[in-house]
Amino acid sequence: MKNRLFLLIQTAVAAVVVVSAVVFAAEPGTENDPVVSKSYVDNKIEELLKTLESGGTINTDSATSADMSKFKYVPVHVGVGQQLIGGEGTEIILRVGRSFAVVSGTESLVDVTAGTEMNDKAEIKKNHIIIVPRNDGRGVRVVEDAWFLVKGEYTIG
């Protein structure tokens, strides 16, 4: 019985030694997955933020350059009787005034805030995020002088 217990303890100790050796011998990073310092990451984030704040563009190896204004909300004034037509993926938020959905056919706009679809001539609610799903003439028609926050491509006509 003592021999079995002694053998069991020796086996457990040997297993711990082998696992520890493997863990401590492993390199902390590889060429494909390097380890970087916190200061390096902080500097890169600071550079990125400065680029975004200056309205510049960002180049990465995995994506093409993009105009960063497409990724920021911009205030847009639209007069009575005019339409704000969004491009694919454009986000529209009514802040002041009154407007209605402009939709062709059976398609719709998406009211993300309410989680609903908006058919043609549906009233746009203030402070709701409205998404234009496709670049096919969808948007909003203004009936009372309006200000919007818009992210993405749009035209006013």
Description:
With 157 residues, the protein is α+β, with helices and mostly antiparallel strands. It has 2 domains: 2-25 and 35-68, no CATH class; 73-156, Jelly Rolls, CATH 2.60.120. The protein has helices spanning 2-25, 38-53; strands spanning 74-78, 83-86, 91-102, 109-111, 116-118, 129-131, 139-151, 154-156. Strands 1, 2, 3, 4, 5, 6, 7 and 8 form an 8-stranded antiparallel beta sheet that branches. A hairpin with a 4-residue loop joins strand 4 and strand 5. Mean pLDDT is 81; it is low at 59-66.
Keywords:
alpha+beta; Jelly Rolls; elongated; 8 strands; 157 residues; eight-stranded antiparallel sheet; single chain
Spans of 5+ residues with little confidence (pLDDT < 50)? Answer: 59-66
The CATH topology name of the largest domain reads Jelly Rolls
Compute the average pLDDT.
81
Structural category: alpha+beta
First-residue to last-residue Cα separation: 92 Å
Q: What multimeric state do the chains show? A: single chain
Q: What is the share of helical residues?
A: 25-40%
CATH architecture call of the largest domain: Sandwich
- Integer count of domains: 2
Strand coverage percent: 25-35%
How many strands in all?
A: 8
Rg result: 29 Å
Q: What's the CATH class label of the largest domain?
A: Mainly Beta
Largest sheet: 8 strands, antiparallel
* H and E order: HHEEEEEEEE
Number of helices: 2
Q: Note the overall shape.
A: elongated
